[in-house]
Amino acid sequence: MERILTSQTQTKIGDRVRVAGWVATRRDHGKIVFFDLRDRGGLAQVVFSPEAPAEVLAKAGAVRPEWVVEIEGKVQKRPENLRNPSIATGDIEIAAEKLTVLSEAKPLPLPVDTDGYEIGEDTRLKYRYLDLRRERLQRNLTIRSRYVQACREYLFSQGFLEIETPLLTKSTPEGSRDFVVPSRVYPGKFYALPQSPQQYKQLLMVAGFERYFQTARALRDEDPRADRGAEHTQIDIEMSFVTREDVMKLVEEMTIFALEKIGARIAEKPFPVVTYQEAMKKYGADKFDLRSEKEKKEGILRLAWVVDFPFFEKATPPAKGWTFTHNPFSAPINDEHEQWLLKGKNIEQIITSQYDLVCNGLEVSGGSIRTHKPEALKAVFRVMGYKDPEIEDKFGHMLEAFQYGAPPHGGCAQGFERLLMAHLGEEYLREVQAFPQTGQGRTSVMDAPSELSEEQLRELHLRVQKEK
Ligand code: ASP
């Protein structure tokens, strides 16, 4: 007999079925024992009545919560007064005829039948594989998967290709600190983990793919915040022969399609477009929450685009001079602003083609039209105080690539985990990630960072200095 899911049992009244899963709860009423059996489909009640074979009853008596069991039995209607309308299988129960214990379980170090907010982060993440058993996180990760599936569906329908880019790459200034990986083969040299696939996706445009996406991991060595972790996943997009409006329209359509697939309610479509200047004047920030109190209570999403950001801002002291506000690979908003950039004048007035999408006060996407002219890219780094040899060393590959027929292009990255936070009413990014880091930057379950052996250090040409 084939195993079926508990969620498939309610249509099988009178049939013998085989189900398997975890014993969520066990109620022993002396002569009669009940299990709530949990699997990926949900829950179903299993009943061990006095008519069941004696050895089955004996086994059922020994089973404890979270044991993994397989049950064969007959699906029957529950008596009217014992129906449970709060679960999908509440009208039926499975009268057990056979019970096999597949795996025993020690008492769990944390409860898994609550929403989990009451448990300390360290315990939850140390036992994340148990923490994830709770209904709330099963639901969050299911909805996450459906959101990504819907984005893929939409992007494939628009002629996009899904292409992966390297994880071991080169350290480049993209606004954050890099995670670095020492090279064994080249003493004293390091790879960097990507802060985003920015340069590779632009090179894919030079290569002629025109429409690229991937669900990309982005790694940034920053102190974690509620809506930011060392690792996050983004839906990374790049397109050729497009305007700013084309990319915004595509991202907006994808977002609406995917959000509606997961049952989100969006207050305003199309999304309003606000300039940076207006946003600062009206809301005092470039991330703002447009929802009314009523909409907040109803879990409604309000999204808006922000455009026309300044390209550069004064660097934070002790650093001097200018730095980019969003993305050094962006193009200025128009030819006049490009001329200013090339001439290094009116720096504070140069507007970038950047667009950000905000949702309920969170920044959920960002992108821009890129410069595909080597001179303009060089000019960005000159404004930031880089000398030509340094620009050549760090970005020579991009400057060269742009000399072999680079199409005009632009793109976007969507930090969809934040959109899911907004939709699911979660306050922390880690509630929509399977194995997030702790607030102290330690990994779930495996407790990294950890030490390396002397042998490994030697191979990597590294010596660890004692903190003074
Ligand atoms: N690479 C940018 C980021 O990850 C987004 C983009 O411009 O596509 O922030």
Automatic annotation (TrEMBL):
GO terms for biological process: aspartyl-tRNA aminoacylation. The lineage of its organism: Bacteria, Candidatus Wildermuthiibacteriota. Aspartyl-tRNA synthetase with relaxed tRNA specificity since it is able to aspartylate not only its cognate tRNA(Asp) but also tRNA(Asn). Reaction proceeds in two steps: L-aspartate is first activated by ATP to form Asp-AMP and then transferred to the acceptor end of tRNA(Asp/Asn). Keywords: Aminoacyl-tRNA synthetase, ATP-binding, Cytoplasm, Ligase, Nucleotide-binding, Protein biosynthesis. Residues 141-436 form the Aminoacyl-transfer RNA synthetases class-II family profile domain. The record marks H29 as: Important for tRNA non-discrimination. SUPFAM superfamilies: Class II aaRS and biotin synthetases (SSF55681), Nucleic acid-binding proteins (SSF50249). This is Aspartate--tRNA(Asp/Asn) ligase. Homodimer. It holds the Pfam family tRNA-synt_2.
